[in-house]
Specification:
77% helix
């Protein structure tokens, strides 16, 4: 998850810079096609194409159709509202992801985990501080993307039960390249040398961030992994302040504190004490 967080903060900056010149469709196609080249060393190390054979191609296709749509909305929102707002609104996602994981994957969600999620969401709200009448198109697009990401997260968790992380990312790149080929070519223009550099960064971060996330999902429940992603909000707010001079104030600091508290609470492992032991105490 540390790898995921770092790469996702970097891709937020690289994605915004790339969209100054290229369409979102083109950036996403280049991200996927370059990503396949970047992923090949891991595919080869895992045993080559035999390692990515799958019996669940429809599941991969569904997951990546949903993820592609959500990712398009995320990149588009980067061009419309501040970085911190894009990521903060995205973090309504854990509520949807946690609920879907309980319903469809049979994961447990006790009161402590729900409280950790609520603390994180309150921290997000404190940072964004949305007020009536201020919600614009960029915020609505970011919110729709959050719902899509939640569905994608649950589908990834389901895939990790039978598929390796390398296989999941390989099929992500293949399916999303196929989905985005036509709209990207219709809007195609050759990037400048400077934008090529940003596109390469987007491709690397987009590929290996998801590899890190899939590996994390293999080692922990969705209800543990997803709340850790709250840390991306304060990290992105900090980068937005450093790179783009976006607002970073006392409310952001308070929101960061709530997010950190939620993560620590969620990761805390309390000893299991039997009923009789508690009674004797």
């Amino acid at each position: 998850m540390a790898g995921w967080l770092t790469l996702m903060v970097v891709i937020a900056v690289a994605g915004r810079e790339a969209t100054r010149e290229l369409s979102v469709f083109q950036i996403m196609l280049l991200r996927s096609t370059l990503g396949m080249v970047m992923l090949w060393p891991l595919v080869r190390a895992a045993g080559g194409l035999a390692a990515v054979r799958t019996q669940r191609l429809p599941h991969h296709a569904l997951r990546n159709a949903v993820h592609y749509t959500a990712q398009y909305g995320w990149f588009l929102a980067l061009t419309l509202i501040p970085l911190a707002q894009v990521v903060a609104i995205e973090f309504t996602m854990p509520i949807w992801a946690a609920a879907l994981a309980v319903v469809f994957l049979g994961e447990s969600m006790d009161g402590r985990k729900w409280f950790a999620v609520v603390l994180g969401l309150v921290g997000v709200a404190v940072i964004v501080r949305p007020s009536a009448g201020d919600i614009d198109v960029g915020q609505l697009i970011a919110l729709a993307s959050a719902v899509g990401f939640a569905v994608s997260v649950v589908l990834v968790k389901s895939l990790t039960r039978t598929e390796s992380a390398v296989s999941i990312i390989f099929w992500m790149l293949v399916v999303q390249s196929a989905i985005g080929m036509v709209p990207a070519l219709l809007l195609w223009q050759w990037p400048s040398a400077q934008v090529w550099a940003w596109v390469v960064v987007v491709a690397f971060c987009g590929t290996y961030s998801h590899y890190c996330f899939a590996r994390a999902m293999q080692h922990a429940d969705t209800t543990v992994v997803v709340p850790m992603d709250f840390l991306r909000v304060p990290l992105t707010a900090l980068v937005g302040w450093l790179v783009y001079s976006e607002r970073l104030d006392l409310f952001t600091g308070l929101g960061v504190g709530l997010i950190l508290a939620g993560n620590l609470l969620n990761l805390l492992r309390l000893p299991k004490v039997g009923w009789r032991a508690r009674r004797k105490a």
